[in-house]
Automatic annotation (TrEMBL), chains A, B:
Signal sequence, start to end: none
Protein name listed in UniProt: Tryptophan synthase beta chain-like PALP domain-containing protein
Lineage per the UniProt record: Bacteria, Bacillati, Actinomycetota, Actinomycetes, Kitasatosporales
Key word Plastid present: no
One Pfam family per UniProt: PALP
SUPFAM superfamilies: Tryptophan synthase beta subunit-like PLP-dependent enzymes (SSF53686)
Length: 405, 405
């Protein structure tokens, strides 16, 4: 259970609302920037580093398969033990189109990169555990990292938690509380305050989340760069935009450090039923609230965006791509035909690329697939009927399925 | 969809019943060695290589995260495209105890290493697809690699297929036929013959399986060696023993090539309800048939062993470790408390280590965890009741769960 990370070069926290507003590194801010946030918009904070002290060669060679520790200088202090997160492969779907398969993480989603950092924040703060509002990957990942660190985890889920996710959360020993949507965020805050737990999901009216979390996602950019250089574009499933921001910040750091000369265009792939980031960009706002319609992409189904997403899309010259469930299903099927079974939300990256047929990319593109098909709502609801085992019936069935005799 | 593997050094197939009995490399034998097999025991074949031509430096440095291609010289021809299989991390559970987490593979089990090779055999043989009898990881993995290669896949499952596995198999476009147990193997053979599909599961009375499959598992040994050197022992969940044999062969090759000086002791971890390998070893037989009792470890629940397992355990100075479901559940819980949610069968490796408290190991030990908790039968059967969202109720519940105020 020992970690052997190099020292973090993190220096302090900095407001995204005003980069001149700074806070000490500890305690991590879990409700955004108090000084610049208004009644309408909560501004997140990010972590700043002593960039002039980044070790030479940090970005040389292959990323190892041994967790985020390799990148420790540019991450918040990795106080919590790792589980071998990150180091996920790029699978070439067709020439120049790569899928970054984040289902290869310890809890089979990208969220492990974030929770390595947030649970480290809890441990570093002396909190006895974490509390998180999530019906999906974030909750399970927080539960796993908390268990690994010997901390407690309370997960406030919706009352429509998919049964497989229920088993998943309980496996790690989390306390699971399925409560109505309106109760989740007030309870998260109250539980955090009363029991001294570190909140690792959002507490504010427009999304801010945990200061340390999106830093973990920078490693997606570092890895893509190590495997491929700087691609022309990266397509990202986008809910509150923490992954999107992390990838943008990672590529920005590579440019800032002189490792690369440019950043890829980032495409934020949202369910069309809501698409708050698209609304914010269209209206020129830091954050927008939207009505959320019915979508099966429950992992990225958000009524409000974060200012982080605006910065990432604008800063990279990308755009938001709203996607229908039909487009998501089509991309999910395309991935499965290539041997990759992704959660519907996770297929948004590829769906976004397919929706941008009018764009011309001068180089390879990467679609991030965030998680596995096991986590979809419908999984487990259907069971195949027994087949007639007599040969004429089997033969007829296989012929009907297109197999040649 | 291009592969860039170095050339395979595979030369021919060799009988495990008599190493002087050889066959050409193509076609791959799918029913063991016809010359040495008897009515009682079917002997498997293995692949032999031009070991004197192994490139210098093949075992130097870190294994990459880009699939089995790195090891192409010592694998059967990798004719089928990969999905970034292998390269899984070792997670340190406690000082000197490592878990090789095979749930980080493309279909979240170790079977992907095998099916990269068997689907390559189908493609190299000009077969239009594969047929496999499996209710679990093997079927899904074969389906994924077949889809990736543009081939068809027929999966003969039991009629008690867990619903999540049903969704998993269908996702990759496999034809799924749930049939009674007694019908599965005759139908596998008949479908293979009639439709020209490559059978990638067993067809013989004692287990032989596909000649190319276990070769893929050698890479588990290569990776453990690259990360850790030669451990004192490796504990492996054992059904038909293909993984066990592959790991043994991999370490044996490293010794043969002068890369290492010894092999680790291999412990075959079987459900006590059947444990055919333990029976074969006890009785001094190449293979034993056993009555199979009730176990939830459906992935490794076998009525007969393969001679491969006997060779691996004897050759490495290891032993078979029969395990009760209670021991398996205890190991599954221990893994989950460390942040790793494993299938019950997958926890057999750690359960085996815990059952061998009397053994003294002079060096680190590795427990292989083969797959994820999502694949267990019970997953999806339970849904948490909604919690009372009022603060006094929530507070009481968290206090009852042991959280301090």
């Amino acid at each position: 259970m020992t970690t052997t990370s190099a020292a973090s070069l993190a220096t302090d926290q900095r407001s995204l609302g005003d980069p001149d507003v700074r806070y000490p590194l500890w305690p991590p801010l879990t409700s955004g920037c108090p000084k610049t946030s208004t009644d309408e918009v909560a501004y997140p904070v990010e972590v700043d580093y002593a960039y002039d002290r980044v070790p030479a060669g940090l970005f040389d060679g292959q990323p190892p398969r041994t967790g985020l520790d390799r990148w420790a200088p540019l991450l918040p202090p990795l106080a919590a033990p790792g589980l071998g997160e990150g180091g996920t492969p790029l699978v070439e779907l067709s020439p120049g189109v790569f899928v970054k398969d984040e289902s290869r993480n310890p809890t089979w989603s990208h969220k492990d990169r974030l929770n390595r950092c947030t649970v480290g924040a809890a441990l570093g703060s002396g909190a006895p555990g974490v509390v998180v509002a999530s019906s999906g990957n974030h909750g399970a990942s927080a539960a796993a990292y908390a268990a690994r660190a010997g901390l407690r985890c309370v997960v406030l889920t919706g009352t429509d938690l998919p049964p497989a996710m229920d088993a998943f959360l309980h496996a790690y020993g989390a306390v699971v509380l399925p409560v109505p949507t309106a109760a989740r965020w007030p309870l998260t805050r109250r539980i955090a305050e009363h029991f001294g737990l570190q909140p690792v999901s959002n507490l504010t009216r427009t999304h801010t989340g945990h200061a340390f979390g999106p830093e973990g996602y920078k490693t997606v950019a570092y890895e893509i760069h190590a495997d491929l250089g700087v691609p022309a574009a990266v397509f990202l499933p986008t809910g509150y935009g923490e992954l999107l921001f992390g990838v943008w910040k990672g590529f920005s750091e590579l440019r800032r450090l002189g490792v690369t000369e440019r950043v890829p265009r980032l495409f934020a792939c949202e369910p069309a039923t809501g698409a708050p980031l698209a609304a914010a960009l269209r209206q020129g706002l830091p954050a927008a609230h939207v009505a959320v319609g019915r979508t099966d992409a429950y992992g990225i189904d958000c009524p409000v965006n974060s200012y982080r997403g605006v910065l990432a899309v604008r800063g990279s010259g990308g755009r938001a791509v709203p996607l229908t469930d039909e487009q998501l299903r089509s991309a999910q099927a395309e991935l499965a035909r290539s041997g990759l079974w992704a959660e519907l939300s996770a297929a948004a990256g590829l769906a976004g690329l397919r929706a941008c047929a009018d764009e011309d990319f001068d180089g390879p593109v990467v679609c991030v697939s965030t998680s596995t098909g096991f986590k979809d709502r419908g999984v487990g609801a259907h069971r195949s009927e027994p087949a007639d085992p007599e040969w004429p019936a089997v033969r007829a069935r296989l012929r009907a399925a297109g197999l040649a005799e």
